[in-house]
Specification:
The protein is of the alpha+beta class. The protein is built from three helices and eleven strands, in the order βββββββββββααα.
Length: 174
């Protein structure tokens, strides 16, 4: 190392979780310590080997650049983050991504660069979340109109007939 050079920040320990397609819970885990490049794909020479028809031989790469991780698509079926295809982009701890539109999903975890979970709660703005106002008087009028309609009257009569038949056909209880 040159005398005046500054050492690059260490990549640290990361974990990749293969997620269950239904539950979203981890079903397989890979840990990497101080690696600057991690390849994912079907090929046996990848760091994470996934045998799935949606996955290319070399499908994606995670690379540590300066002080962050970047996810780069190398596959023909694309790599998706938050449902959008990406070519390359910065990835943060706890980010989920998918190899191909219908391929396997992963969660990326960087033990040295975790997201501050309180930031999400503290930066919550209620005015950005729409609320629904219900006109109670209109709701009462609408319910009354439905209950008084001919269709609802016929429905009640049919229900009464079915209950009567059911009572006649039921064996006596002991």
């Amino acid at each position: 190392m040159a005398e005046n050079s500054v050492p690059a920040p260490a990549a640290g320990k990361i974990t990749l979780f293969l997620l269950d397609p239904i539950k979203g819970s981890p079903i397989q885990t890979w840990d990497f310590d101080s690696r600057a490049l991690i390849r994912l794909g079907r090929g046996v020479d990848n760091d994470v080997v996934i045998q799935d028809p949606q996955v290319s031989r070399v499908h994606a790469e995670l690379q540590f650049v300066l002080d962050h991780w970047e996810l780069t698509n190398r596959g023909r079926n694309g790599t998706l983050v938050a449902g959008a295809n990406i070519e390359s982009g910065r990835i943060q701890s706890e980010t989920c991504f998918r190899l191909g539109a219908d391929g396997p999903s992963f969660r990326f975890y960087d033990s040295h660069r975790t997201i501050d979970q309180t930031a999400t709660v503290l930066n919550f703005r209620i005015d950005l979340n729409p609320t629904i106002d219900i006109d109670q008087e209109k709701k009462a009028r609408d319910v009354e109109d439905i209950v008084e309609s001919e269709y609802f009257r016929q429905l009640r009569q049919s229900t009464s007939r079915l209950k009567s038949r059911s009572a006649l056909q039921s064996p006596p209880t002991r």
